[in-house]
Write a structure and sequence with these properties.
Layout (H helix, E strand, L loop, with lengths): L2 H33 L10 H37 L2 H7 L4 H42 L11 E5 L2 E10 L2 E10 L5 E13 L3 E13 L2 E12 L5 H7 L8 H13 L5 H22 L1 H5 L8 H29 L3 H23 L1
Antiparallel strand pairs: 1-2, 2-3, 3-4, 4-5, 5-6
Helix pairs in contact: 1-2, 1-4, 2-4, 2-7, 2-9, 4-7, 6-7, 7-9, 7-10, 9-10
Length: 355
């Protein structure tokens, strides 16, 4: 890479980092204000609320990086135009295409950062934030939401109501069905501990079995339950799909598909995460036609306002598509890519016109 390429990449990345940092500060402030209504419940203090917000910032970074990249790209490349550095580059024989390649390289680097944050850092820290908040607010913790985590494994329906540790659950209810979905038995355990590779050990288990015209009840101090639903999977099932990594989403999709269950929401979440990463590249590249076109002599304020408007428009489109997919059951893959494809078409058309 030549010196000029490194300079363009460094300038664009610096602007994106600055803009994204400002966005994260604003988002973190809003999150912290929103947590004040829950401060004081149990042992949940303002300091713990601040830690909760800090642990959620990597997830917010993945969420807002496309917007930060779009605004930062305009600001960074616009700064070069304002100081006539782009003019000097063009006069030195550097083509617009070469400059666009350098800007695109900055976008590729940002995509790599987003992939690392979204796949490895954000999901684990967000889960840790939820767990610490729950343990602080309640002594009797449920990670499954109001309805519990419902899992179907073959002819078994399992409901895990309360999560104690990574490998243990309480309030474990088991429904055994026949092939025609007739209920054979209902059992409940006070607690359940995972036995890796062997299923679950149910403790203080009570069961009602339906045999013809009668109901037979029995209880056991401990009973083994063979199922592929691990503690990790039950924890995943109780988590918002949009907060999961691509690997976790693919595991859930494979599991639910094998049991004939709906995977619509999880497929949308998976492809939405992939599309969001790709949108970062096009968001940065959008700066090139604007800076060489209508914003060539505009000030930093005008570029910032335009970038903010475009970024918010893309973000709102993504949220509208997300809600529409869940509400109307539309094709998840196509709609997950729709905002990014719209941005890609806009960038491509403007670059072609620029040439």
């Amino acid at each position: 890479m030549r010196v000029i390429d490194r300079y363009i990449v460094r300038t664009v990345l610096a602007a994106v980092v600055m803009v994204t940092a400002v966005l994260l500060v604003l988002v973190g402030l809003f999150l912290f204000i929103n947590e004040q209504g829950q401060v004081g419940t149990g042992e949940y203090t303002s300091l713990k609320a601040l830690r909760y917000v800090a642990l959620n910032l990597p997830g917010q970074l993945f969420e807002f990086l496309p917007v930060g990249a779009l605004i930062g790209g305009l600001m960074g490349l616009g700064a070069l135009a304002r100081t006539s550095e782009l003019t000097v580059m063009r006069a030195s024989g550097i083509s617009k295409r070469r400059i666009a390649v350098a800007v695109g390289l900055a976008g590729v680097l940002l995509v790599g950062v987003a992939a690392l944050v979204g796949e490895w850092l954000a999901p684990s820290l967000s889960q840790l934030a939820r767990e610490q908040k729950a343990f602080s607010r309640f002594s009797n913790v449920s990670f499954a939401g109001q309805g519990g985590a419902w899992i179907r494994d073959g002819e078994l329906l399992v409901k895990a109501e309360q999560r104690a540790t990574d490998g243990a659950f309480g309030g474990f209810t088991v429904f055994d069905l026949a092939e025609n979905n007739t209920l054979i038995s209902v059992g409940r355990a006070a607690s359940a501990v995972e036995q890796p590779g062997e299923g679950w050990l149910l403790k203080d288990y009570a069961e009602s079995r339906f045999e013809g015209e009668r109901v037979v009840s029995r209880s056991e101090a401990a009973r083994s339950l063979s199922t592929r639903a691990s503690a990790e999977f039950l924890g995943v099932a109780a988590t918002d799909p949009m907060d999961l990594s691509v690997r976790a989403l693919q595991n859930v999709i494979d599991y639910l598909s094998a049991n004939g269950q709906d995977v619509h929401e999880y497929r949308f979440a998976l492809w939405s995460r992939v599309a969001r990463c790709c949108a970062i590249f096009f968001g940065v590249l959008l700066a090139v036609p604007f800076v060489f076109g209508s914003l060539r002599s505009a000030g930093a304020g005008a570029r910032g306002v335009l970038g903010l408007a475009l970024g918010l428009a893309w973000f709102m489109l993504e949220k509208v598509v997300e809600n529409g997919t869940a509400a109307f059951g539309l094709d998840p893959v196509l709609l997950a890519w729709a905002p990014t494809l719209a941005l890609a078409v806009l960038v491509s058309a403007m670059l072609v016109r620029l040439r």
